[in-house]
Every structure is written in structure tokens, then in C-alpha cells.
Amino acid sequence: MAAEIIFWISGTLLAYTYLAYPALVYTIASCTRNRGHNTATNSQTSDLHPPAGGSDLQTSTSTSTSTSTSASASASVSILMPVHNEEKVLRQKIQHLLASDYPPSGGLLEIIIGSDASDDGTDEIISEFARTDDRIVFFRSEERTGKSEMLNILASKAKGEILMITDANVMPSVHAVRLLADRFLDPETGLCDAAMTPSGAEGKGITKQENFYSRFESALKRAEGEAWGTMTGPYGGFYAVRKSIFPLLPRNLLVDDLFVGLTVLKKGFSAFNIPEATVTEDTSPDISGQFSRRVRIAAGSFQNLYHFGPFPGKSAQASFCFFSHKVLRWISPLLLAFVFMTTVILSAHSVLYFCLLSIQLIFILLPAFDMVLYRNGKTLTPLRFATQFLMMNAALAAGFVKSLKGIEKGIWEPTKRV
Q1: 402: nearest Cα among 299, 292, 291
Q2: How far apart (Å, rounded) are the C-alpha atoms in residues 90 and 85?
Q3: Using CA atoms, how far apart are residues 298 and 305, in angstroms rounded to an integer?
Q4: What pLDDT score was predicted for residue 195?
Q5: C-alpha span between 394 and 400 (Å, rounded)
Q6: How far is Cα 304 from Cα 298, in angstroms, rounded to an integer?
Q7: How confident is the model at residue 326 (pLDDT cuts 50, 70, 90)?
Q8: Residues 6+ apart with CB under 8 A from 234
Q9: How far apart are alpha carbons 253 and 147 in whole angstroms?
């Protein structure tokens, strides 16, 4: 009886975090969008057939729109970019940032790039741009400090009201900076992030599966923002936060974006994804490289969990989203282990559980078949999805162990650039 209870509780929690919770959030977000669309439609209809004095109302609306536009243009923005040995992508990244349609005059935009003891051509590239464009501010650390400490340093130097944090391999569209800045016209907005579009050939390695998961996560976080303004954990490659609420990051922190996002929700501000603010990021096809990256992210995620607890939001909705979306997902390796062990116990007493055990054993063996095919130059998409799912959960387990051992430094190595 105890084994059966554990089996059904664990299986229900897995189904909830991967299936039921996303379905719930998407449904609420869809209803919210529909209400907003109907309100906008009714407002437009009223404008077309105004009551007496309607011209004054239209003039007021026009003035309000003009005021909003000027308010957006007056917000000062500081883009913070910590880098270490990024010569392969840095020139292209700086060119993308300088091509932004955010007002280039008036000192409203600055780009502060911090080189964390780079020993390739990174510093020379930054210096070259800094000599010709006064929007570029160059800072170099002579010894490795780690991303979090570098962000603390760059944030202390920033003059902007809005901080935009980005990685070197993430290429923004010309409108991305402006669209993110526009969202901060709402004083309740504390953080917003861009919509990532993966680049690179999806037929290589595990790229297709990683890109699918990234799109799923982006859609879910966007729906959380639309439903309650409680997007949990921004896309770390390009996100914006009010400088006034940007926290001091622990030196040994591995996942800064989640720490910042949870701080925003804990302080009662809203967080959103802006789908029109698009950026592209290369996805490494290397399975071992992706595994190492996910172990680091998992260890950093557990760091945040230890710091904030399972219910960190100031609002009930924020805590509900974090627990349902993040915490249950992080403990899914434990839940999967419970399901497997209890199925082994129950399989001797029930045909149903024997069949479930057989299915699990086959699923566990699929990555082995996938690797054999891959080494012979062949790939079957369903097998590769099984490999990616088990790899993600193995990385979560490894990250949990790493977090328990203690993390002394937040030093990172960039993944292989495509």
C-alpha cells in the first residue's frame, strides 16, 4: 500500500508539472488576452462613435499616446555584458547593439562591457569599438571574478535607470532594446526579457531537441507573465531590470538571471516576456557540452532555491508559479526514481505495474540505441528526444549533488560557439 501511494503521488506530480500546469497557465493567459482584445475593440468602437465632446476625448488620447512615446524615449538604458574569451562572436554582438534603434543621442544608451581576465583577442575588439563610439564603456578585471561579481561591478558603474543584461553570443534585433525599455512605462514592471529564436542547424547533435525545449519554456514563461505578471526566471541571454531593484549578487552565484527574477517577484514587481523583442542565440549541438551547461544551471538553480525557499513571491500567484514550474521540475529526478522503484516493487503483484515497469526499462535503454545510431551517422528524432529528457534529469541530479558539495566561485566558461 505504501509503495502504491508513493507511486501515484510521484506520478501525479510529474504529470502536473510537465502537462497540467502548462495547460492551466496557457488557458488563463488565453482568457486574459481575449479580455484585453475585447476591451481594446470596445474602446476603438467608442472612439469611432464618440459621445458629445468626443473630440476632446480623442485629443486627450492622442496627447496621452504622445506622452507615453516621449516617456519611453527619455528612459536611460545601460547594457551590461560580462565576457570571457568571446573573440569569435564579440565583434558581431557589438555591431548589433550599436545598430539598435534606441535613441543614439542624448546619452540615453551606454554599453558597458566587462572583460573577466580574457586572454584572447576580446580586449582588443572592445578597445577598437570604444575608441570610435562613446557609448561603449570598457572595463577589465585582471583576475577571474566570475559573472555575478562582474555584473555587480558593471551595475555600480551604470548610469541608466534600466539595466539590460546580455551574453556575448545573443544577437538582438534592431528593435529589442527599445521594446524592452517601453515596458517599463508601467511603474509596476520590474523585469522583462526578450524572446529567443535559436539559430544553427537543427539536424546536428541535440540542437533540435534543445531548441524545442527552449521554445516550450519561453511560451510557458510568456503565459505566466500574461496571466499574472509572474514570469519565473527570465531568459538570461537578454533581459532588463530596474536598476533601483537590482540586487547585490553573491560572488559564488551560478545563475544570476533567476536570482534577479526572484528578487523582483519577492519585492512585489511584475515580470514579463516581450515576444516582439526578438534575439537569436546559437545552440551548441554537442551533447556533452550541453550536459555540462545544464549541470551548471541546475547547481545554480538549487543555490537559488536554498536562498529564496520554495515560495519566494510576494503574491500567492508568484509563489504558485515558482513552485509549480521550477521546484517540481527540479525534483523530477527524485520523482522519477520513486516511480521506478515503486513500480519494481509492485510489478510482482500486478500485470499493470509489470507493464509499466517494462515501458520504463525500454525508455531507459533508448538513449543507448540513440548513441549507437548516432555514431553510425544516423539519428531518429524520437530516440533523440528520449536522450535529451534523460540527460536533462541526469544533469539536474548532478547539479543537486554539486550544490550540496558547495560552490565557492561563480566562474564560468563559455560553451562552444557555433
Answers
A1: 299
A2: 9
A3: 10
A4: 93
A5: 10
A6: 10
A7: very high
A8: 191, 192, 193, 221, 257, 260, 261, 271, 273
A9: 8
| Dihedral (CA of 130, 101, 273, 64) sign | positive
Cell of 310: 520554495
**Residue 99 has which C-alpha cell?**
545598430
Q: Which residues contact 311 (CB under 8 A, 6 or more apart)?
A: 319, 322, 323
116 contacts 83 by C-beta, under 8 angstroms? yes
Q: Which helix (H) or strand (E) holds 303?
A: helix 287-308
Q: Render pLDDT for 356-387 as a digit per residue (tens, 0 to 9).
A: 999 999 999 998 888 888 788 787 888 888 98
CA distance 49 to 334: 61
- Nine cell digits for residue 307: 536562498
Q: 273: which strand partners? A: 193
- Let me know the angle formed at the C-alpha of 412 by 230 and 17, rounded to the nearest 5 degrees: 35
What are the residue ranges of helices labelled H in 49-169?
54-74, 90-98, 122-132, 147-157
pTM of the full predicted structure? 0.87
Specify the pairing of strand 189-199 against strand 238-242: antiparallel
DSSP 84: S
| Nearest residue to 103 (alpha-carbon basis) of 126, 132, 71 | 71
Cβ pair 298, 398 in contact under 8 A: yes
Q: How many residues does the chain have?
A: 418
Which class for 134: exposed (0-12), middle (13-18), buried (19 or more C-beta within 10 A)?
Answer: exposed
**CATH (residue range 76-160):** 3.90.550.10
Residue spans per domain, the chain: 1-27+170-408, 76-160
Indicate the helix (H) or strand (E) that contains 131: helix 122-132
As given in the structure block, the three cell numbers for residue 3 are: 509503495
- Bridge partners (DSSP) listed for residue 171: 280
Question: 259: how many CB neighbours lie within 10 A of its CB?
Answer: 21
User: Half-sphere exposure (CA, 13 Å, Cβ side) for 251?
Assistant: 4
Residue-level pLDDT at 36 = 64
Q: How many Å separate Cα 136 from the centre of its chain?
A: 26
